[in-house]
Structures are given as C-alpha cells and as structure tokens.
C-alpha cells in the first residue's frame, strides 16, 4: 500500500505534464487537420478539373466518332461509288498538265526533250491516274462477276461481261505501258543521263505502238459494250434510266475511240520528225541542252532580231542643224517671258481683225468699182447707138422727148404737191425733181460707212463670242474633270461600303459564334460551380464532424 503523501506528490508531478501533453496533442491535431483540409481541397480541385476535361474529351470523341461513322463507306458498293466520284480529281489534273504541255510548245521556244519540263508534270499526273485505274479495277471486275452470278443474266450477257472484264484488264495494262514510256521521255528534262539520245527513237516508236494498242482496246470495248447494251435493252427488267446511261456511255466510248485513233495515227506519221534533231544547237545535237541555255539562246535571238529591226527603221524628218541654230536664240528669247508671248498673241489677233476689216472694205470697193464700170460701159454704148442712128430716129427722139418732157412736168407737179418717201438699209431717201440729181458719191460714202460700221460691230461680237466660247469650254472641261473625280470617289466609297458591309456581317457572325461559345462555357461553369458547392458542403460537414470529435476528445481528456 502506498502512502497518501506519495499519491499527492505523484498527482502534483503528473498534473502539469498531462496538461502540457494535452495542449501539444491539441495543437498537433489542429495542424494535421489544417493540412488534411488543404490537401483535401487540392485533391478536390484537381478532381474537378479532371472531370471537366474528361467531359470535354468525351464530347470530342463522340463528335469524331460521328464524323468517322459518316465518312466510312458502308460496304463495297459504297466504296466503289466513292472511288468513281474521285475520278474527276484525277482526270482534271491530267487534262491541265496536257494543256500546259501544249502551251509550252511554241515557235519561240526550243522544243526538245531536254527543254520540255512540263512533260514531267504530265507524267506524274498520268502515274496518279494509273494508280486510280489499278484501284478501281478489282471493283469493276467484281461488279461484272456479280452481274454474271445473278439469275436474270443470260448466257450471251455473261459472255459479253467476261469479254469486257478482259478488255478492262488490257486497257489498264496499255495505260501502264504508255506511262512507262512517257516517264522515260520525261527523264532528259530533269536527269540528263537518265535516257541516252540514241534510245529516243526506240522509245518514241514504242509510244506509237502503245497508242495503237490503246486504240485497238477501245474498239473492242466499244464493240462488246454495244452488244451488252443491246442485250440489256431487250430484257424485261430494263428501265429508262439504264437505257439512257448505256447511251451516254456508248457515246463517250465512241468519242474516246475516235480520239485515240487520231492521236495514234498522228504520232505514228510524225515519229521521224520527232526523232530528228534541231537545226541549231550543240554540234551534232549530241550534248545536253538545258532549259536555261535554251532560254538564253532565245533571248539573244530576240535581241538580235530587235536590233536588226531598229537598224532598218527609217529616219524621222527633223529641222536642219543650221536652221535650228539660227532659230535657237529667237526660240529662247520668245520662251523666256510668257507675258511677251501673250502680248504677241494679242497683237496678232488685233492685226487679224484689222486685216479682216480691210478685206471687207476692199471687197466693197471692188463691188462699187464694178458697178461704176458697168454704168460707164452702158453710157458709152448708148452714145454709140445715138450717133449711128439716122435722122428719122432723131425726129422720133425729138417727139419722144417732147412727150417725156410733158410727162415729166406732170410728174414734177405731182411731186411738188405730194413728195414720196422710200426706206432702205442706209436710211430714208426722198424723190426729187429732175433738177435735183442725187449725189452718187455721197450715196456710195453712206453705203461704205454703214457697211464698215456693221463689219466692226460684227467683228467685235465675233471676238466676244469666241472669248465666251473659250471660257465656257474651259469651264466645261473643268466640270468634266470634277465629274470624273466625283465618279471615282463614288466608286471608291461604294467599294468601301461593300467592304464595310462584309466586315459587319463577318463581325456579326463572329459575335454570334462567340456568344454561343460563351453561353456554353457559362453553362458548363455553372455546372462546375454547383458541383464545387456540393463538395464544399460535404467538406464543411466533414470539418464540423471532425471539430465535434475533437471537442469530445478534449472533454474526455479533461474529465480524465
């Protein structure tokens, strides 16, 4: 048995130690709780990000699977139809390569195998097309076999199908042979040592033979397919679509057969010309002619032709040198001052107007002189007639003069009583008696002065009209220039408006797409926030439970 003194001493020693241990354990527990809480939050964030990425990847995988399912053909028939639809992607480059090759062969180029660079491109396109033919050949043969295996296929139709399958194999083989020879012909343009010049003739001859073989194969295909179409049209199951399709195929095959025959005959007839060397180039045409050297040779040839043409050009007529030197000072002095030139022009215009006035004056003088001459000639003729007449005529004249005198007296009496007035261009003239004779010279002066004044007035009006016309012409020209500038600015503004409208439409499309993407992102973020709230609530509950458990433990320790 222990004494009570020992127990009291033990309690006094163990009490502070237990309290310290309790405090240390409590602080350690809190730190561990904080660390666990932080690690839990990090793990939860990583988990949320991983789930978000997994959702995106799952959607992307679903889209890719849908696209793959749509792109994959279903069955051999779909694959064969897909290959047939790809025919244009192989035929169009082949046609373009042939056109480029044809355009590169002109009269201004040195056309030999070493310079026909476009032949290599055509050979590559032909190779890709032959690969396409090899790819579709098994499907063609398989379709013919399936047609032969059907219950509606007759023996004659089966025989035609077998012949067509053999023809398709022959056609592919002929194309392969033709591609081999064309590839050999395309080697000199890229690799000088790829094909010897001594083998050009044999290769070209084999190309001609291959073309003839292609023509023969096409004739067989046309014949056998025509027979097959005739048999199919006689079947009760033949539809209108099948008939029209067969007609289209037959017309295409016939056109291809005719074209192949023409190409083969043309090539075979001109093989010797193709083999023959050019008239100029390296000696005996034995060396390699690179495309660059051919281009340089053509450039020098064009320069030489242009130089010879310039030498043959006739000289342009010009002012003699001495005359140009003599007039040089006058020209320089006249061009030094624009005011002097303007004054000279004004003086020349005044001189021209004066000369025109003098011209009109002298024309009037000439007319008056002509009138005087006619009057003088008339007077002389009258005198001659009066002297040559006889006495009887004189008596008759005396009687006539008496009668005229009486009539004149009566007329003068009337004139005295009633003077008559007449108007003309020069004014008002009054009729006088025989004693008051009109002054001819004064009348001529009046006419001359009137016409001179009229000419001066018309000349001034003409000059004024000319100046106005020049002014109006300048204004019209300026207005036309302004109108042209306004039209150009209008066109530029319309183009800018079009560009602005296009940019506005593009921006609207981008705005709609961004709006949709933002809405999708917001929806996904809202889902993510909901999940985060749920996790936070769970974590809070766990923290509360941990706190409650820690409080319970502390109470238990205190009770102990």
Automatic annotation (TrEMBL):
<feature type="coiled-coil region">
    <location>
        <begin position="476"/>
        <end position="510"/>
    </location>
</feature>
<dbReference type="InterPro" id="IPR049372">
    <property type="entry name" value="PPP1R21_C"/>
</dbReference>
<feature type="coiled-coil region">
    <location>
        <begin position="338"/>
        <end position="372"/>
    </location>
</feature>
<dbReference type="InterPro" id="IPR019348">
    <property type="entry name" value="PPP1R21_six_helix"/>
</dbReference>
<feature type="region of interest" description="Disordered">
    <location>
        <begin position="540"/>
        <end position="560"/>
    </location>
</feature>
<keyword id="KW-0967">Endosome</keyword>
<dbReference type="Pfam" id="PF21636">
    <property type="entry name" value="PPP1R21_C"/>
</dbReference>
<dbReference type="InterPro" id="IPR040024">
    <property type="entry name" value="PPP1R21"/>
</dbReference>
<dbReference type="GO" id="GO:0005769">
    <property type="term" value="C:early endosome"/>
</dbReference>
<keyword id="KW-0175">Coiled coil</keyword>
<dbReference type="InterPro" id="IPR019343">
    <property type="entry name" value="PPP1R21_N"/>
</dbReference>
<keyword id="KW-0694">RNA-binding</keyword>
<dbReference type="GO" id="GO:0016020">
    <property type="term" value="C:membrane"/>
</dbReference>
<dbReference type="Pfam" id="PF10212">
    <property type="entry name" value="PPP1R21_helical"/>
</dbReference>
<protein>
    <recommendedName>
        <fullName>Protein phosphatase 1 regulatory subunit 21</fullName>
    </recommendedName>
</protein>
<dbReference type="GO" id="GO:0003723">
    <property type="term" value="F:RNA binding"/>
</dbReference>
<feature type="domain" description="Protein phosphatase 1 regulatory subunit 21 N-terminal">
    <location>
        <begin position="26"/>
        <end position="98"/>
    </location>
</feature>
């Amino acid at each position: 048995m222990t004494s009570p003194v020992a127990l009291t001493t033990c309690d006094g020693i163990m009490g502070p130690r237990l309290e310290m241990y309790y405090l240390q354990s409590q602080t350690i527990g809190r730190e561990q709780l904080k660390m666990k809480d932080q690690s839990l939050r990090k793990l939860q964030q990583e988990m949320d990000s991983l789930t978000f990425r997994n959702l995106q990847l799952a959607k992307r995988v679903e889209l890719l699977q849908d696209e793959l399912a749509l792109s994959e053909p279903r069955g051999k028939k779909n694959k064969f139809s897909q290959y047939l639809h790809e025919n244009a992607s192989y035929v169009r480059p082949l046609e373009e390569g042939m056109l480029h090759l044809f355009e590169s062969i002109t009269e201004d180029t040195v056309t030999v195998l070493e310079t026909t660079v476009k032949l290599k491109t055509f050979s590559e396109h032909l190779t890709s097309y032959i690969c396409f033919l090899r790819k579709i050949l098994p499907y063609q043969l398989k379709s013919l076999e399936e047609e032969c295996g059907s219950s509606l296929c007759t023996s004659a139709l089966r025989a035609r199908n077998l012949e067509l399958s053999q023809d398709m194999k022959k056609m592919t083989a002929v194309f392969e042979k033709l591609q081999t020879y064309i590839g050999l012909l395309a080697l000199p343009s890229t690799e000088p040592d790829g094909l010897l010049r001594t083998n050009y003739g044999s290769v070209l001859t084999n190309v001609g033979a291959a073309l003839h073989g292609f023509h023969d194969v096409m004739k067989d295909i046309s014949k056998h397919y025509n027979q097959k179409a005739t048999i199919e049209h006689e079947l009760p199951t033949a539809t209108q679509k099948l008939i029209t399709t067969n007609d289209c195929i037959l017309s295409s095959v016939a056109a291809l057969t005719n074209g192949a025959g023409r190409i083969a005959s043309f090539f075979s007839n001109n093989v010797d010309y193709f083999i023959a060397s050019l008239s100029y180039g390296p000696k005996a045409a034995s060396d390699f002619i690179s495309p660059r050297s051919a281009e340089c040779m053509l450039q020098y040839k064009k320069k030489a032709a242009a130089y010879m043409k310039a030498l043959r050009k006739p000289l342009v007529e010009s002012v003699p040198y001495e005359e140009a030197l003599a007039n040089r000072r006058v020209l320089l002095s006249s061009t030094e001052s624009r005011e002097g030139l303007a004054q000279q022009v004004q003086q020349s215009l005044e001189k021209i107007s004066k000369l025109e006035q003098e011209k009109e004056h002298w024309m009037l003088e000439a007319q008056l002189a002509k009138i005087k001459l006619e009057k003088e000639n008339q007077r002389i003729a009258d005198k001659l007639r009066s002297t040559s007449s006889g006495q009887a005529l004189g008596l008759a004249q005396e009687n006539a003069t008496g009668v005229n005198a009486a009539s004149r007296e009566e007329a003068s009496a009337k004139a005295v009583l009633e003077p008559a007035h007449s108007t003309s261009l020069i004014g008002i003239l009054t009729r006088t008696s025989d004693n008051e004779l009109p002054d001819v010279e004064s009348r001529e002066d009046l006419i001359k002065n009137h016409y001179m004044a009229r000419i001066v007035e018309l000349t001034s009006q003409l000059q004024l009209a000319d100046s106005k016309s020049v002014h109006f012409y300048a204004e019209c020209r300026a207005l036309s220039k302004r109108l042209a500038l306004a039209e150009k600015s209008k066109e530029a503004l319309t183009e800018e408006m079009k560009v602005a409208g296009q940019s506005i439409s593009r921006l609207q499309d981008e705005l709609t797409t961004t709006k949709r993407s933002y809405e999708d992102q917001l929806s996904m973020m809202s889902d993510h926030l909901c999940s985060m709230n749920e996790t936070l609530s769970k974590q809070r509950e766990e923290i509360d439970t941990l706190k409650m458990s820690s409080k319970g433990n502390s109470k238990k320790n205190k009770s102990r």
